[in-house]
Amino acid sequence: MSSGSLRDAYRAFTTTVALITTNGPKGPNVMAAEWTFHVSYDPFLISVHIDPESVTHDEILAAGEFGVNLVNEEQVAAMAFAGHYSKADTDKLSSEAYETYPAKKIRAPMIRGSLLNAECRLVQHLPIGDHTAFIGEVVEFSVNPSKDPVVLHQGSRRLGDRILRSPAVVVAATPAHAARGSRIIVVGELTSPDRANRALRVEILPPDGGDPLVLDGETDPYGRFELSVSLPADAHPGTYAVRVATGDVEGRARFDVS
């Protein structure tokens, strides 16, 4: 059973916002797009999801390219204006709220002062529900690290303080359902400022309360670790506990033996 309104559900997500620029048959234009995502490292791809009723939708198809300009905190008014008005009746880029500059490799203008400016060539588009996803390969970009992004979560917000994670060990055992005599791989990572090359004690605790299997290990420079242990051929069936400890922090996992 659902609880709350659809609007509440939509606003529960957290995204950044981009000003999407085009220069197609109807001339230079800008629109605000909340659904703008980085979707591939190599090649560098950005996906922009746009309503088919939007002028920008057909302009991207006609031009085969578009600009992505990630909004910073100083561009909130320009972001709202770009979302509230359409190229169908308003030449939005005539506003002094937008300072544009010529792109290097596409015809669309770019918005100066953005957190990220990315010039994109259209490589794929596909319908997804009531929007179209346009996938663009970034052919030129620049980043302004002095700018802070606008975050949408139940309205426009600033990016909050970075979460400082308390020291912890997260561990997993593979396979989760093992046979007697098989090999168990124990992997995990330590979250801590001094997580590199930390000594580990790994215990495999049988369900019958018998003596544990004990391993010694060490984290790598990134706080990660991987160890393996072979179960005895006569291992007791049931749920085994895995305990990994370093200093005063520990993590646990479990697996079943049949």
Summed up:
The protein is mainly beta and 258 residues long. It has helices at residues 6-11, 55-63, 76-84, and strands at 15-16, 18-24, 27-33, 36-40, 45-50, 65-70, 100-102, 109-111, 116-128, 131-143, 150-152, 156-158, 168-174, 177-178, 183-191, 199-205, 213-218, 224-230, 238-246, 249-257. It is built from 3 helices and 20 strands.
Word description of this protein:
This protein has 258 residues and is mainly beta. Helix content is 9%, strand content 49%. A seven-stranded antiparallel beta sheet has the order 3-2-6-9-10-5-4. The longest helix has 9 residues, at 55-63. The chain is elongated and about 80 Å long.
Distance between the termini: 38 Å
Q: How much is the radius of gyration in Å?
A: 26 Å
Can you tell me the CATH architecture of the largest domain? Roll
As a percent range, the share of helical residues equals under 10%
Mean pLDDT: 93
Order of helices and strands: HEEEEEHEHEEEEEEEEEEEEEE
Strand content: over 45%
How many beta-strand segments? 20
